[in-house]
Amino acid sequence: MKVIEIKNLTKKFKTGYGIFDINIEVKAGEVYGYLGPNGSGKSTTIRHIMGYLKPQAGSAHIFGKDAWLESNLIQNDLGYLPGEIAFPEYNSGIDFIKMIFNLREQTNWDYVEELINYWEFDPNVKIKKMSKGMKQKVGLVIAFMHKPKLLVLDEPTNGLDPLMQEKFISLILKEKAAGTTVLMSSHIFAEIEKTCDKVAIIKSGRIISDVEMNKLKLKSDRKYEIEFVDSKVLKEYLYKNSKTKHLYKIPYDQVDDFFEKLKKFNIKDFNEIPFSLEEYFLDFYKKEEKQGGIKNV
Q: Residue limits of the ABC transporter domain (predicted)?
């Protein structure tokens, strides 16, 4: 079942910026990462999913319903965390949480308290006096507390310290195991890499890459750092080198050939460098600037 289905979605603003021919499919139970720099179109896409913006062309459907025309039928099953949080400042955190709880006609207050304890903050503080991280935690509680079928999270760990970022990853993995669908934009590559089934990269309002994480890892170049016993060094596949360390970059389908050739050399130290989504993203952006086009893996 397609929980999110976006087809040729286009919205151009007077400035010339916007999103153009966006196509996204997210199936039930998938976690979908949406990567791109500030101003690339991530939040504009998400606002269409939420029904806050009307498309100029194309469509966005959530649970098979038109996100613009039928947004009122979608909200009960959707949890949303905006990229820019603007809560009523003179409420306390707990009062605001209770207000949303009552508006949704929820009955599971025990779970709300569980989330508050999980995020380790005092909800009785006035929102005006809260730090950015505390406001983010209030937003996360509100997004998760009605146990929605779909979570739409725009920069969800913005303002959180590294410990809380790890707790966020654990919570997403728990939701994933329970079958919750998640669409998440983020600048934190680790949380995308550890949680997502698919990743799209958006640049200047257009999706330039749409990949499955497992296939991406399988088809990515392998990198190895090697220190040799003597001056005899394998020249082929050499990517960078220093006085003692030599970095090799090998296409995934030539790894066997690399190791066969490596047998002829005396090795002192050998390390495999793990796949990095951040490196892939930065390399892809550089290549895209030269070549252009869309890539599917």
A: 4-229
